[in-house]
Amino acid sequence: MPWLAPTLLVIGLAISLPLTRFAIAWGRRMGSLDSPGAPGHRKSLRDVPNTGGIAIVFAWTLPIAAALAWLQFGGAVPEGMDLARVRVGMPATWATVVAALWLHAAGRLDDRRAMRAAPKLATQLVPALALAWAFDLRPLTLMDAWGAAGQALSVTLGVAWIVLLVNAMNYLDNMDGLAAGVGIIAALLLAGALMVVHQWFVAAMLALLAGALAGFLVFNFPLHDGGARVFMGDGGSQPLGLLLAVLAVRGVYTDPADPDYALGGAWYGVLTPVLVLAVPIYDLLATSWIRLREGRHPLVGDQRHLSHRLVSRGFSARGSVLIIWTLSAIIGLGGVGLGALAPWHAALVALQALLALALLAAAEGVLRR
Question: What is the pTM of this model?
Answer without folding.
Answer: 0.94
